[in-house]
Here is the input.
Amino acid sequence: KKALKISGPDAQTYLDSQTTNNVVKLQEDSFQFNSILDISGQIISSFVLCKKNKEDFYLVIDEQHIESTFERIEKYHIAEDFEVTIIDQDYSLKINNKQKRGFKGCYFFEDDIIEASLSDKNQTDFDILKILTGVPGFGNEVKSEELINNTRFDELGVDYTKGCYPGQETVSKINTRRGAAFKPVLIILEQEIKLQKEKIFKEDKKIGEIRNTCVIDEKTYIYALLNRESRIDKLRLSFSISGLKLEGLVHYYPYLRPSKKSLAQDLYDHAVGLFHKGDNESAKKYFIRSIDIDPKFEDAYESLGVLYGRLEDYKNAIKLMEQLKELNPKCMMAFTNLSLFHMKEGNIETAEKYKADATLLNFQLLGDQAQDKKAKEEIENKRIADIARREGMFKQVIEMDPEDAMANNGMGEIELDRKNYKESVEYFK
Here is the structure.
């Protein structure tokens, strides 16, 4: 994507007065989703706003909308001290940038990076992530002159606590009343089918429209706008497109959560499912992706190592188990599998060493568990003794004053903790 640069002492104030999100609260070297609306709440332009500092901003936007956005910004630029220029430089999104250079924020996932660089141009993966996370693209999943309340930019890029901006009154009214008439959801079909951007019908009544689709593992995923009656989470929806009758499961967005740990877990769960089906090559790919997203995901290392072992690729299996052992020096399965895989490779001496290490570690873990058990018992004994002390004190007070509120409440809590509910109720009464 390309960018507009807005620089000057009044850049922040002007942008905050003209856009839907809070520009003042945005941290330096960070980005946010943001939009410019007309007075009726319809989108003129949606973009990613990158803040270098309070005088230097970059609006990252599709090239086809950059001129119209430039014109809209300049239209109300009267006396404010700033300049707008079109930057002849590509800007790209880095989902897993270990160097952490560029503007930081949550695009698809937390800690994503936007930077001025050559794009990887992996458009297929980008489109799939848009559909699964619900993060729209302006001009594709979101159309120009569409009410922002009807789009995911409403959740991603509207601050309802900030001051006025063009369209703010309309947007707030829709939000505080019935909400959007149509809203994006994900529909999953248990079949592979090619679909166009078409209207969705139910019993000859239009209930929505398709904005984008993708196919993953013989399932079809639809980014759709649905009406209020149809967009119910986990609803099994029967509908038709161009006369073709279909049935799918509705999911609220985000289907993939913005946490990278959650993404890694989703990829891992999918890999395990493929592994159980016997699709080892696909499972391997998803285990690797899971580790790439979360390099400390122990279960993914273990499962991928076991998969390599199943495929008799013992060198890679050993490599994975060594990495797991570095991550967690007390991981029993790392030592056990290292012994097994070295044995398969004919490294008898090394295999025996790891077997001995596993045995020693097992004794250590049993010792740690015994210590934990002892510590928990000591804590529980102290708690019981403290309850007995408090009980004696409360009962003495109640003997002197049966209606003492604090003592009755204290006894009520004690009996509640003991699951003596009838006695507890009497004290609370």
Notes: The chain has 13 helices and 14 strands.
